[in-house]
């Protein structure tokens, strides 16, 4: 960023108060902010007490050796016991934990008692395979219940799991296995995606062949198609796990015992193994799930549409919801199989009351058209959530109107793999929301916006988002690389001791926070910092546009010129008139400085599997360069399509 800080460009005046009924019965009320401000550690201590501990802690936070935090030191607990057994012991064994919906329409209903048996058997199986406390287990699995069983079985025996997205290549899996020296790989024969079988086993084999640390490969049978088999190394889940005892006594581990490693590349660079530990992580994900989603375990049906290979799946499919005894939906497939209303059909079928999804999905639904969700009964919904990217105000409004019938609150939740749990979000029974703003740090969380010198910017200003106090579910480091941990997150504002998240943000005149995207993506046009998010939101506020990605490409006169890649809503025609109408629209919404120089109509955008737009690749295209690393792309072919459509630099 230049010396100039990001100014407050877009103006959003719409406000939405919490529904009275929700506010009256909310899990968390406004007084939580004051309580947490008064004594932050006592506040987190109270949240830790929502869990079951085998041994109480001595100290809430040990921050004597920053940036290495220890929370609830001396305390002992078992994460799987907290997510499963204690609910059965309390008499809720018959409550449904997971409604599994396969893409072909097959279903499974898993109660908490079932979950306890499955996790216990899997834990016994891991022990039989020689997995011991502290050993790392790689999980290369799709969205099937065994993925949850496997993760909880690892937690139960204290073997940190490392879940790798099923869509990752063999090479991506191999490097992650090697980095963590995993000795067991758990995978599947295949899974159902877009009406076809995705064949996972050959990838798993190739990764295991190349990774010297893998001793055994445990294979779940999902599709039943024929797969290559290595009799020395491969073991069928149904043969090994099914013959185990369904009794298993969980051992309590230290609060700081590693729970999992999850690799993140963000949108750039070599993947980092983000390390999370047990007590603080579970405390924060359980509390935030309770506070932000207002879950009532007796009546709610929760559905987080994230893949379990993303941190959102770890924290808000597995650990947070299960610790809170949620009943939830787990769906294997894509939103458009066999038709574009599949999500809404699932909501109608299971009477989902709380939906948590990503802006990328919402914009896709906007593109497909309002008539699709309108065909289904979505009246069970009472709360909607968003995560993964800034949500454009227009997408927010569309979500509320078309999915939430104009009555459900929306919680826009900002957080990262590194933060472990939600950090900035409205509280649904408290906050009057503004479309496009994640609003305030949650009770017990402290964040701020600073300029390049680390000075706090006043309301109305913009700059870097920082976290200025340690939080329970914070990462404890990067696996095997303490220096990289310090450099990546703590060196930018070392003097102040702030964690730098890598995101730009602004504070509006009320002090509410608006996320502006990764600072690496921020554009510098004729001496002005302009956020990609704001230009994209201006484009999406035009009725013809469903989604937009904006990059700053090198320009001889202005430093950078704004290039916009635009996906139109269904039925719109791409022509010169629309091209100039969109440029004028941005100019009117934000100002002439933000007017795109070039607009390219496209059918798809390059995205990571968690739905984040990879602007870095679009920038390569806009600057007419060879593409950088595309290994985390969902579909690498979209780049060829986009590159073939874009006029080369200079030919406007
Ligand atoms: C949970 C997750 C983290 C990055 C983060 C930011 C972006 C996530 C957001 C958001 C604006 C939100 N991000 N939620 N930006 N508003 N509500 O996404 O983790 O995959 O590690 O990504 O995602 O840029 O820094 P992760």
Automatic annotation (TrEMBL):
<keyword id="KW-0067">ATP-binding</keyword>
<dbReference type="InterPro" id="IPR042099">
    <property type="entry name" value="ANL_N_sf"/>
</dbReference>
<dbReference type="InterPro" id="IPR020845">
    <property type="entry name" value="AMP-binding_CS"/>
</dbReference>
<dbReference type="Pfam" id="PF00501">
    <property type="entry name" value="AMP-binding"/>
</dbReference>
<feature type="domain" description="AMP-binding enzyme C-terminal">
    <location>
        <begin position="534"/>
        <end position="612"/>
    </location>
</feature>
<feature type="domain" description="Acetyl-coenzyme A synthetase N-terminal">
    <location>
        <begin position="31"/>
        <end position="83"/>
    </location>
</feature>
<feature type="modified residue" description="N6-acetyllysine">
    <location>
        <position position="612"/>
    </location>
</feature>
<dbReference type="InterPro" id="IPR025110">
    <property type="entry name" value="AMP-bd_C"/>
</dbReference>
<dbReference type="Pfam" id="PF16177">
    <property type="entry name" value="ACAS_N"/>
</dbReference>
<dbReference type="InterPro" id="IPR032387">
    <property type="entry name" value="ACAS_N"/>
</dbReference>
<dbReference type="InterPro" id="IPR011904">
    <property type="entry name" value="Ac_CoA_lig"/>
</dbReference>
<dbReference type="GO" id="GO:0003987">
    <property type="term" value="F:acetate-CoA ligase activity"/>
</dbReference>
<dbReference type="InterPro" id="IPR045851">
    <property type="entry name" value="AMP-bd_C_sf"/>
</dbReference>
<feature type="binding site">
    <location>
        <position position="312"/>
    </location>
    <ligand>
        <name>CoA</name>
    </ligand>
</feature>
<keyword id="KW-0547">Nucleotide-binding</keyword>
<keyword id="KW-0007">Acetylation</keyword>
<dbReference type="GO" id="GO:0005524">
    <property type="term" value="F:ATP binding"/>
</dbReference>
<feature type="binding site">
    <location>
        <position position="545"/>
    </location>
    <ligand>
        <name>Mg(2+)</name>
    </ligand>
</feature>
<feature type="binding site">
    <location>
        <begin position="412"/>
        <end position="417"/>
    </location>
    <ligand>
        <name>ATP</name>
    </ligand>
</feature>
<feature type="binding site">
    <location>
        <begin position="193"/>
        <end position="196"/>
    </location>
    <ligand>
        <name>CoA</name>
    </ligand>
</feature>
<protein>
    <recommendedName>
        <fullName>Acetyl-coenzyme A synthetase</fullName>
        <ecNumber>6.2.1.1</ecNumber>
    </recommendedName>
</protein>
<dbReference type="Pfam" id="PF13193">
    <property type="entry name" value="AMP-binding_C"/>
</dbReference>
<feature type="domain" description="AMP-dependent synthetase/ligase">
    <location>
        <begin position="90"/>
        <end position="479"/>
    </location>
</feature>
<dbReference type="GO" id="GO:0019427">
    <property type="term" value="P:acetyl-CoA biosynthetic process from acetate"/>
</dbReference>
<dbReference type="GO" id="GO:0046872">
    <property type="term" value="F:metal ion binding"/>
</dbReference>
<keyword id="KW-0436">Ligase</keyword>
<feature type="binding site">
    <location>
        <begin position="388"/>
        <end position="390"/>
    </location>
    <ligand>
        <name>ATP</name>
    </ligand>
</feature>
<feature type="binding site">
    <location>
        <position position="518"/>
    </location>
    <ligand>
        <name>ATP</name>
    </ligand>
</feature>
<dbReference type="GO" id="GO:0016208">
    <property type="term" value="F:AMP binding"/>
</dbReference>
<feature type="binding site">
    <location>
        <position position="503"/>
    </location>
    <ligand>
        <name>ATP</name>
    </ligand>
</feature>
<dbReference type="InterPro" id="IPR000873">
    <property type="entry name" value="AMP-dep_synth/lig_dom"/>
</dbReference>
<feature type="binding site">
    <location>
        <position position="542"/>
    </location>
    <ligand>
        <name>Mg(2+)</name>
    </ligand>
</feature>
<comment type="similarity">
    <text>Belongs to the ATP-dependent AMP-binding enzyme family.</text>
</comment>
<keyword id="KW-0460">Magnesium</keyword>
<keyword id="KW-0479">Metal-binding</keyword>
<feature type="binding site">
    <location>
        <position position="540"/>
    </location>
    <ligand>
        <name>Mg(2+)</name>
    </ligand>
</feature>
<comment type="function">
    <text>Catalyzes the conversion of acetate into acetyl-CoA (AcCoA), an essential intermediate at the junction of anabolic and catabolic pathways. AcsA undergoes a two-step reaction. In the first half reaction, AcsA combines acetate with ATP to form acetyl-adenylate (AcAMP) intermediate. In the second half reaction, it can then transfer the acetyl group from AcAMP to the sulfhydryl group of CoA, forming the product AcCoA.</text>
</comment>
<dbReference type="GO" id="GO:0005829">
    <property type="term" value="C:cytosol"/>
</dbReference>
